[in-house]
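Hello Y.,

Per our agreement to keep a running log of every chain we model this quarter, I'm adding this entry. I've kept the format consistent with earlier entries: sequence first, then predicted structure.
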Amino acid sequence: MRMIDTIGGEVQLRQLVETFYDLVEILPEGESLRKLHLRGHGLAHVREEQFNFLNGFLGGRRYYEEKHGHMDVRRMHAHIPISVQDAEDWLSCMDQALARNNLSGPEIDRLRLIFRKICMMLVNDLREWGLPAGPARPH
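Predicted structure for the entry above:
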């Protein structure tokens, strides 16, 4: 079974993404993520692109690839300084979004591990951005 089906299809994925970004907008751990997105195209844009990407990533229609020609998460985030703390904050917000959408069980635990691996892969060399290197940066 595709993960998109496990979580309830596109309708449930849309709800998960909306819940995630609602949490990013209100939780303290969303502060750095909000700032990063507001420097870019904004939260409305990223809500749509996150849905487009995750839909294909989870085995559904690859909307992001249809629109942008690739599904390379490193390429998507290459222009953004991402610290370990940013990755942990993203994971915390997603954990809470999964819980609020009653998504649990072994497959969701596996998805959490996959999200963790991807988030940590996106952490980049903050010194290139003129920011302090290390496990976390102040918010």
